[in-house]
Design brief:
Helix 1 runs antiparallel to helix 9 and helix 3 packs parallel to helix 4. With 360 residues, the chain is of the alpha/beta class. It has a 7-stranded mixed beta sheet with strand order 2-8-7-6-5-3-4, with helices on both faces. A 3-stranded antiparallel beta sheet has the order 9-12-11, with helices on one face. The protein has a two-stranded parallel sheet with strand order 1-10. It contains 12 helices and 12 strands. The longest helix is centred in the last third of the chain and has 24 residues. It binds pyridoxal-5'-phosphate.
Length: 360
């Protein structure tokens, strides 16, 4: 019998610190602006709220485990057959499903770094090994990523635009990369922020996946569609991929309220994209103001901007906290700042203006 007097846990858990809830910051005057999670700054549209309220009256019932009506609505909106779509509990949930579907212990998963924080956690939990390829000029180095693929690589993430740097890869380089990836290795193109892209050279994944059976497109309702708190994301890929992914679905994990809310949000796409347009305008204003103020800010195609602050990152974050503005610092690297309402953005710009160090 083992001597241990506690249950034994997987050693992989030792590599993660326990989840720390995001702190709520407030200025002395009680101001509290959250620019740390890239959410939509506006609450649900009345039509979406009505669908949520209506669905809430029936939560004694299980949700439709197949999300059939939602998948139908996604398919209709994007001109994609239902057999090409799989949904999950946020696109983070779909990411976990993808990894569970393709990774055996010890398999490799390649992605740029720094990129989305969920990738290393989900890769490790799947028992796979992360291969992180450094960004160059805050952007994916796709040729180095292709070089990093071995016969053990089962999945490659390309986050476009990249979180947290906001930078994009364009059509020609992405297609050249996809041409180099072996057919038995899945490429996941994470398009969480696609609605915010204005660079015409950036491809839409839905135009790319049709001739590519090893390409999966990942989308979410959490950002432009404003449903971060309800949790639903989806993947579009060839039916063989979609079918495999659905087998790893945690039963009922896309709840009934979010299914209704997402359908109502798709029906309100025009209104939501008008809001996105406002965010894009604000992004351009924020970036131009920062640059005029002496900051270096990579071109952002997202609803956030990236400031590489190096050793000054935590001081900058503290300066924002003191004014009641929470941003997302990555110690020693930089800070990601979401685009909020004009008032929130002005408050952030004021802190940036007063901060003594520019760019690390
Ligand atoms: C925010 C974000 C998502 C969305 O996650 P959800 O689980 O759908 O809320 C996915 N990928 C990236 C890169 C993100 O930044």
């Amino acid at each position: 019998m083992s001597e241990a007097n506690t249950p034994r846990f997987r050693s992989v858990l030792d590599r993660f610190t326990a989840y720390k809830p995001g702190k709520i910051v407030a200025s002395p005057e009680g101001r509290s602006f959250k620019l740390s999670s890239n959410e939509s700054p506006e609450g649900p549209l009345p039509s979406v709220l009505a669908a949520i309220t209506e669905a809430a009256t029936k939560v004694n019932r299980y949700p439709d485990n197949s999300s059939a009506a939602l998948i139908e609505a996604i398919g209709a909106r994007f001109g994609v057959p239902a057999s090409h779509i799989a949904v999950g509990c946020g696109s983070v949930g779909v990411t976990q499903m993808l990894l569970e579907a393709v990774c055996e212990p010890g398999d490799e998963v390649v992605y740029a770094w720094r990129s989305f924080e969920a990738y290393p956690i989900l890769v490790a939990l799947a028992g796979a090994t992360s291969v992180q390829v450094p960004l160059v000029d805050e952007t994916h180095d796709l040729s180095a990523m292709a070089d990093a693929i071995t016969d053990k690589t089962r999945l490659v993430f390309v986050c476009n635009p990249n979180n947290p740097t906001g930078t994009v890869v364009r059509r020609a380089e992405l297609e050249a990369f996809l041409d180099r990836v072996p057919a038995d290795c899945l490429v996941v193109l994470d398009e969480a922020y696609i609605e915010y892209i204005r660079d015409p050279e950036v491809p839409n994944g839905l135009d790319l996946y049709r001739d590519r059976p090893n390409l999966a497109i990942l989308r979410t309702f959490s950002k432009a569609y404003g449903l971060a708190g309800l949790r639903v994301g989806y993947m579009v890929a060839h039916p063989t991929v979609a079918e495999a992914i659905r087998k790893t679905y945690l039963p009922f994990s896309v709840n009934a309220v979010v299914q209704a809310a997402a359908i109502a949000s798709l029906a309100a796409t025009d209104e939501l994209l008008t809001r996105v347009e406002g965010t894009v305008k604000e992004r351009e204003r924020v970036r131009a103001t920062l640059i005029a103020d002496g900051w270096t800010v990579p071109p952002a195609e997202s609803n956030f901007v990236w400031l590489r602050l190096g050793e000054h990152t935590m001081d900058f974050s503290a300066a924002c906290d003191a004014q009641g503005i929470s941003v997302r610092p990555f110690p020693g690297e930089g800070a990601r700042v979401s685009i909020g309402s004009p008032e929130e953005n002005d408050a952030f710009l004021e802190v940036a203006h007063a901060f003594p160090h520019r760019n690390g």
